[in-house]
Structures are given as C-alpha cells and as structure tokens.
Design goal:
By secondary structure, the protein is mostly beta strands. It is about 5% helix and about 45% strand. A seven-stranded antiparallel β-sheet has the order 2-3-13-5-9-10-11, with no helix packed on it.
Length: about 375
C-alpha cells in the first residue's frame, strides 16, 4: 500500500561517500548524512535526534523519512543507535550492507506490535522487492515489549552470514539471525515510517571490524517435508494481465527464457532474487516437470504471493489471491503451503506451471513453493 512512494524516495541514493567508519557517534549533520523525505533534526527526550517519518503534507496518509550515512561501507562490525517511538503505528529500522537502493539487509521494529511475535523483523531486500511476507516466525523476529516514549538502545553485531540483534539489554542478544544475502561490504541508513506517529533516532555509531564474535545462535531453519520441491524453472517476468481469462496455455504463452532457482530448506523460493517487479513485468511462470510411472492422482500443496494460477499440462486447475488483507484485516499475506490441488497425472511426462504475479502497488514479497504429498511413482526433474 505504501511501496511506490517509499521506493521513489529511496532511489535518490544510498551508498554515500568514502569516509572512515568511527566508534564515535556520527552526528546528524549534512556533512555526515543525506536526509531523504520526511526528516527533521530536533531535541527529543534529552538527545539530539533525527525525526523520521515527518508528514511533508498534513493531508498525507503516511510519512516516510530516511537518513543515509556518508560513511565507508562495512562488511563486519557493530552498528548501534538509540530509538524512540510512542504507542503508535510506527516503524523504525536500519538498512545495512546496502549495495543499491533496492538491495540491502534490513532490520526494523514495529511500535504497535509491542509484545507480539512480530514486534520486529529481519528481512533481506533484492531488486527493490521487500520480503516481509516470506520472513516471519522465530527465525526472523521476536516478541519484544517496548517501553513507549523512552529511548531504546539497539545494537547489531554482524559477522559474515550471522548477526546478533540486541534490543535494550546489552548482556545477551534478543535473537540472532542468519543473514540471507551474500556477505558484501555496504552502506547503511536509518529509516522511519509513520502511519500514526514518527520515530526518533539518536547516538548512531558504526564500527568496522574484520572479525567479530557472535554470541547467539539463530533458530534452526524450517526444513520442508518429503516431497518438497527443491528447485524450479523460473521464467523471465512478463505482464500478468495477458493471462486474465485464460483457462489454458499455448506453446506461444510459455515460450520464453527460464532460469533454475533452488529453494530454501523450507521449499520457499524468493522470486525477487532473480529479478524485480515492474508494470508490465509483474508475473513469472514457475515450471516443474513431473515424470509419473502410471496414470494417477497426487495431492500438490503450494504457496504463492500475491496471485497464483496453477496449470497442469497447459490446463488450468486453480486461481487464487493471497495478498495482504485479502482474507481478513489480520491476514498478512504470508507464504506457506496453505492451498492444495489434486494433479491428475498421466503416465510419462507432465508439466506443472504456477503463474505467480506480484502486486506492483505493494511489493512486499514475491514467492512460490510446493510439495507433492506422496512421491511414490513420481520423480521431479
């Protein structure tokens, strides 16, 4: 719902200029930071702070602001800052290891979800597509209780593919995460999103270190059950509107370039790793070849975001939508094996295609996953 305006702001620039990282706080001045969107430097609760998420027009539904550090890129090290928000619907976060305006690691906190399982979240971003619909659960978040209206100290200790996340308590991490992007030195930025209140940040510092100890242990990755599809053939993106009303696919429809994408241990494939989403290029075919030893029926469990259409041997079996808030106001569009169709397989080769379309208005996760419940008499290739 907010993605377009935010993406426009973020394209101004992100990596900053070369400057040695320092253990001293990086003051919020124009020499040290590039201020984008709704930002304001002010005194807040005894600290010199940057206010993020200022509504630039009083009639705006949302305010978004970002402060981009003009500092040398960091691969490993410690990043610290203080954050304050009220009991409002507000988000405050840190982008780090930024490679481009749409490629970075992201950790953020949700003021209004204090004490809930999704009080905060880690997620990677690829090609300008956020992925919070894909990164949910104890692997990526914690039920932190926030002291609204008070400064909260946040610290990330980052080493190669791991990060400890400290919130308030500096003696033990709130939780630890496996970072999903390839480890590469990058810039960093603070951001705030205001749906009913802004976010303040202060006392930012970042220290680059060649090797830093990680004290926590990430929650083990979810592993898919037997029959989980481990890789798909993914097409180049095309205009999903061309499929509207179609009940079958022709050879011309599917004649395009495909790329092999391996799934995570859970079976989920983040489609944005391959390419971004744009008007006229919002849909891909996820293709799977199934060899069946006989004519038989197999249950196929699957998940997608945001729109999914399933074809078996070119004939339509299913169409559905799992975008946020489409089932009810609490449904967040999370991706899992929530739907099932029955595949009427013929003896020999069968082609399964899931057309997956992502909203260009609210790009918050583009994914596919699947599982054949009983693999007896079938092989995938």
């Amino acid at each position: 719902m907010l993605r377009k305006s935010i993406s426009t702001l973020c394209t101004i620039g992100i990596l900053g200029v070369s400057q040695a990282a320092t253990a001293e706080p990086l003051p919020f001045t124009e020499d040290n930071w590039a201020f984008i969107g709704g930002t304001m430097i002010e005194e807040k609760a005894g600290q010199q702070a940057v206010r993020l998420g200022v509504r630039e027009n009083p009639d705006d539904f949302v305010g978004f602001g970002m402060a981009v550090a003009k500092a040398a890129p960091i691969l490993n090290g410690v990043i610290e800052y203080d954050l304050l928000f009220d009991a409002t619907r507000s988000f405050g976060g840190l982008r780090f290891r930024t490679q481009s305006p749409g490629d970075f690691e992201n950790f953020y906190m949700r003021a209004h979800q204090s004490g809930n399982p999704d009080a905060n979240q880690y997620m990677p971003e690829y090609n300008g597509v956020a992925s919070w619909e894909l990164h949910y659960g104890k692997q990526y978040s914690s039920p932190t209780v926030y002291p609204h209206g008070e400064w909260i100290h946040v610290k990330l200790v980052i080493n190669d593919g791991l990060a400890d996340i400290y919130i308030g308590d500096e003696t033990a991490p709130e939780y630890s995460v496996n970072l999903e992007r390839d480890p590469m030195a990058g810039g960093f930025a603070l951001w705030g999103l205001n749906l009913s209140g802004p976010v303040w940040m202060a006392n930012f510092n970042a220290t680059s270190m060649e090797n830093v100890a990680i004290s926590g242990a990430p929650v083990p990755a979810v592993v898919g059950e037997a029959g989980t599809v481990e890789q798909w053939e993914i097409s180049d993106a095309f205009d999903g509107a061309t499929l509207v009303g179609k009940t079958s696919l022709s050879a011309a429809d599917t004649d395009m370039t495909y790329h092999t994408m391996a799934a995570k241990a859970s079976g989920q494939v983040n489609l944005s790793i391959l390419q971004g989403v744009a008007e006229g290029a919002d849909t891909v075919f996820a293709r799977l070849n199934i060899h069946s030893e006989s004519d038989q029926i197999k249950a196929f469990e699957f998940g997608f975001s945001d729109f999914g259409t399933v074809f078996l041997n070119s004939e339509i079996l299913f169409h559905g939508m799992d975008a946020p808030y489409t089932r009810d106001y609490r449904f967040l569009g999370t991706v899992g094996l929530f739907d099932t169709v029955f595949l009427n397989l013929k003896e020999g080769e069968n082609e399964l295609i899931v057309a997956v379309r992502e909203s260009t208005f609210d790009t918050t996760g583009w994914a596919v996953q699947g599982r054949i419940v009983d693999m007896s008499g079938v092989t995938l290739h």
